[in-house]
Fold this sequence. Notes:
By secondary structure, the chain is an alpha+beta fold. It is 39% helix and 10% strand. The protein has helices at residues 5-14, 18-27, 29-34, 61-67, 71-77, 163-171, 184-188, 195-211, 229-235, 239-246, 262-269, 277-288, 293-313; strands spanning 84-91, 111-117, 127-131, 137-141, 151-158. A three-stranded antiparallel beta sheet has the order 1-5-2. A two-stranded antiparallel ribbon has the order 3-4.
Amino acid sequence: MGASASSKFLAAIKNGDETSAIQLYTTEEKLSAQLRLCEVGGGFNKTSAKRDGSLSRGSTPLHHICDFALADLLEIVLPTGKGYSAITATAYPEGKTAEGRSNAGHSTSSVRQITVTVPPDKYFGQTFMVMLPSGRNMRVAVPSGARPGTQLSVSYRDQEYSSLQRDYRAFFDTRVQDEHGKNPMQLLLSKSDKNEERRRILEHIWRYTQQRGMSLLLNRQYGEEKETLLHLCARNDLADCAFFLIDRGASLEMEDQRGNTPAVVAELSNEKKGKSNLASRLEAMMIFHPLHAEEAKTHQQRLDALSRAIDISHRPLVGSGQI
């Protein structure tokens, strides 16, 4: 008996095989309906729940997605806003169209279909964005058998009708720890590769949590090192992620267990290669970043007041005879 689609999907993300994972997710409707990003084992079995109802510690699909920076996959399995989620993208056989195709198992009121063309630079397993008639964007994966210029029949559904979306709201939690005590956000920012993909994932998760009133706890300190997410960005030279966090309230002054700010961590982690550009920018931002504008304004007012006091004290008194 061959492996199930869920087993293949889990194996793919554990190995960082984004192409295979996307192909499975976009062609196996049952898999996409059952997937739980933040449950151990993806929620495909019920062994991850303890008797008290809490989740067992272990790696979830979101851990693997963040660890390997599978940005395209995340944007497909975790759509944001009241947009649309793709069910399948099927390449037309040569000379055929989508006429007569059915969407078995789906309500006709929730499932829609459009025809799109694969962009010139996209191949099997890669993804691209398409604009729907509503004006919203949706990410589509290039299916097996398609190549640049191939027409695709894309089935999609409104999220407001999707039980999948309701399930995500109930189970999505970035605080779940793996067997090493790491949560998905820590894994995302603990590697120095794929800077752009890691920024995309960070931005996507931020948008999703903000839309649902959740919090990423930007200034929470993790582990024995007492590092914040910004410390992790600094240590791994993830400049784009660092600036994204700072612009949303991550503290530049928080210190880790050794008393180091993110700027110091960035400098120490790159000392063998000379002064880090990120370290220099973080140091400058500690002074000039807009979050410090009021503090800087207060200091400037005090300096102006002191300057006026000094100026007055040096003026000659009228009738004193001073020249």
